[in-house]
Each structure stands twice: as C-alpha cells, then as structure tokens.
C-alpha cells in the first residue's frame, strides 16, 4: 500500500527584498501563510537489502513537471535516503491540481509532502534539524511546508519560524496566464535599487519584521490573540494589516512586476473590491490573492475576475493545526519516530 499526502500551497502575506548576498541570493523577510488548496503526492517505498542501490520512479499527470533528478520531490527523497543511511525502492506520483510556477510554492510543497510520505512508508523520521537542513538544500520555500500555518521566513526565505496562528479566512487566488520569471524580477529589482546603499536596502527587511512583530506578537495589540468577531474583524490578520497600514505589509516584487505586466496591477485592483481585507502578489507572481471577510465577498471577487477573463482558485487559509491534521489522506503502513 501507499501513503497519499495533501501537498498544500502558500501565499506571501508580505515580502521585503534586501541586498544581494555573497552567495548570489538576496536577503529576504517574508510572512508565509499556507492555503488549503493542494496537489496530491502519493509515495510507496520498500527497504532494500544492504548493498542494493536505491531506485526512484516519479510520475505525474502534468507533462510540464520533470520526472527525474530536476524535480524537487525527487531531490528531497534522494537526500533523505542518504541522511537515513538506507536503500529503498521508492515510487512517487504527483497529481497536479495547482498551477506550475505560479508563486504558490507548489513544487516546494511537493518536496515536503514526498518526505512525509517517505517517512511514513519506511516507519522512520528524520531528526527535525536534518529535515529543515535538507529542505533548505532543495529549495528556499521548502522548509516552510515542514511547519505550516503562518511562518516567518528569513535569510533567503529558508530560515523559518512559526508565528502565532491566524484564523482561517476566505481566499481567492487569481491565476493570470502571463508568466513571471523570478530571476528576471530580481535582476530588474537590482537595476531599480542601484542607488540604494546596503544599509538602506536592509531597512526594508527591518520594517517588515517590525510590522509582523507588532501585528502578531505584541500582547497589547488590539485583538491579536482573539479569534472572536465576524469575518476577519478583531483577529490577528486585521491587527497585522492595521499595524502595517498596508505600507510595510506588502510585496516588494510588485514594484517591478507590475511595471513589466500592467495587467497584474489591474487584477490586484479587482481583488481589492468587494470587502477585501488585503490583496497582494504572491512571491514573484504571477499569482495574486485577496483575503475576504465573507464568503459573499469572495464570490463577488471570483465573478469580477471571470469578467476580466482571469482564472481563479477559491480556497481558505490553513492554520497550523489544520495543516497537519488534514495532511495525510491515506496511510498504508506503520509510522514511528527515529531521532
């Protein structure tokens, strides 16, 4: 039997870009939030006798997804087997339901789901530090999916810290047909920011970090630890948005991506209608999202996007407890922990 895992998606509630680092990556501060929308990753694994070579097979229903060592799920399983010091025959099937390269972290989530499926199939579990280290080697967005919920990302996004829970709310994700190249977006950002000093660039990271801390972690902020009230009113997300006043809680990529693709800015304006609490580009795009107080408002946003000819995905944000309780859909073997 096999283990089937829901491979959830994410949005970036805020993303600040800092100076380029010596390793070529940019310093980032971001607040991730997982969503209920997901792919399905099915893993079947069987230990092999000592001396045998591990064998991996990866299949998918989407021909755009690589089925070899370029795939993040393949990389994750290969590294995990090496870390565990075991040989196994592993088959992975990825049923794509999320857009490929859409800014929702789908490929990164597939890698985390493959690891969870592998651990359950083999009846072992990597030590937590090793899991996060391997995840960071595979991709900057992968570690967040080993936490779930609201997650602070630092470094290049791979240094992750769980944040106080944000109650679930309606989310509409706009899925434009236009593609956005992340490397090209970074290059354009660097060109635009050439006149800034490294210190000034670092200030962006500090401002977003301070807004997140004030909105989510300050016990005296209004409503921060209360999930009561209608819709988003009185919950931590509202406090975060009010604290940032939508000036610090933003995605820096919008400055360059909206110039390159003006239609994406129009989509954001559409999402902001009908009672939207907050809308932004996710990652470097091209997906954008809006968070809504009511289901009726979310439905209106979907209707307006349809009028623009833009596909959309209706979902909800996923708190950490629900992220883990609903992840494993089908288990075909025992599971134990090996520290």
UniProtKB/TrEMBL annotation:
Pathway: Isoprenoid biosynthesis; isopentenyl diphosphate biosynthesis via DXP pathway; isopentenyl diphosphate from 1-deoxy-D-xylulose 5-phosphate: step 3/6. Residues 248-309 form the GHMP kinase C-terminal domain. One of its GO terms (molecular function) is 4-(cytidine 5'-diphospho)-2-C-methyl-D-erythritol kinase activity. The active site is at residues 10, 141. Its EC number is 2.7.1.148. Keywords: ATP-binding, Isoprene biosynthesis, Kinase, Nucleotide-binding, Transferase. InterPro entries: GHMP_kinase_C_dom, GHMP_kinase_C_sf, GHMP_kinase_N_dom, IspE, Ribosomal_Su5_D2-typ_SF, Ribsml_uS5_D2-typ_fold_subgr. It catalyses: 4-CDP-2-C-methyl-D-erythritol + ATP = 4-CDP-2-C-methyl-D-erythritol 2-phosphate + ADP + H(+). It is an enzyme of class 2 (transferase). The keyword Nucleotide-binding applies. Belongs to the GHMP kinase family. IspE subfamily. Catalyzes the phosphorylation of the position 2 hydroxy group of 4-diphosphocytidyl-2C-methyl-D-erythritol. This is 4-diphosphocytidyl-2-C-methyl-D-erythritol kinase. It comes from Acidipila rosea.
């Amino acid at each position: 039997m096999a283990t089937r895992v829901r491979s959830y998606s994410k949005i970036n509630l805020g993303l600040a870009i800092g100076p380029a680092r010596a390793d070529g990556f940019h310093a980032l501060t971001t607040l991730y939030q997982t969503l209920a929308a997901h792919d399905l990753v099915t893993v079947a694994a069987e230990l092999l006798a000592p001396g045998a070579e591990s064998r991996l097979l990866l299949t998918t229903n989407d021909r755009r997804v690589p089925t070899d060592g370029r795939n993040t799920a393949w990389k994750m399983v290969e590294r995990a087997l090496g870390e565990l010091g075991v040989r196994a025959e592993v088959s992975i099937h990825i049923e794509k339901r999320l857009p490929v390269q859409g800014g929702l972290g789908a490929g990164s989530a597939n890698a985390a789901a493959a690891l969870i499926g592998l651990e359950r199939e083999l009846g072992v579990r990597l030590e937590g530090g090793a899991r996060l280290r391997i995840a960071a080697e595979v991709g900057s967005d992968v570690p967040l999916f080993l936490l779930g919920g609201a997650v602070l990302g630092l470094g290049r996004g791979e240094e992750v810290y769980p944040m106080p829970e944000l109650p679930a709310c309606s989310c509409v994700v706009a899925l434009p047909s236009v593609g956005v190249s992340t490397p090209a977006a970074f290059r354009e950002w660097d060109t635009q920011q050439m006149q800034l000093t490294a210190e000034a660039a670092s200030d962006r990271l500090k401002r977003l970090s301070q807004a997140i801390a004030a909105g989510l972690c300050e016990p005296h902020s209004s409503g921060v630890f209360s999930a009561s009230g209608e819709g988003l009113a009185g919950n931590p997300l509202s406090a975060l948005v009010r604290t940032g006043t939508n000036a610090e809680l933003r995605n820096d990529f919008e400055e360059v991506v909206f110039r390159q693709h003006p239609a994406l800015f129009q989509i954001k304006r559409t999402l902001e209608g009908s009672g939207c609490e907050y809308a932004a580009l996710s990652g470097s795009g091209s997906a954008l999202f809006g968070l809504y107080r009511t289901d009726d408002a979310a439905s209106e946003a979907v209707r307006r996007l349809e009028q623009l000819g833009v596909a959309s995905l209706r979902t909800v944000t996923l708190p950490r407890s629900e992220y883990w309780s609903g992840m494993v859909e089908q288990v075909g073997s025992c599971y134990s922990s090996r520290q």
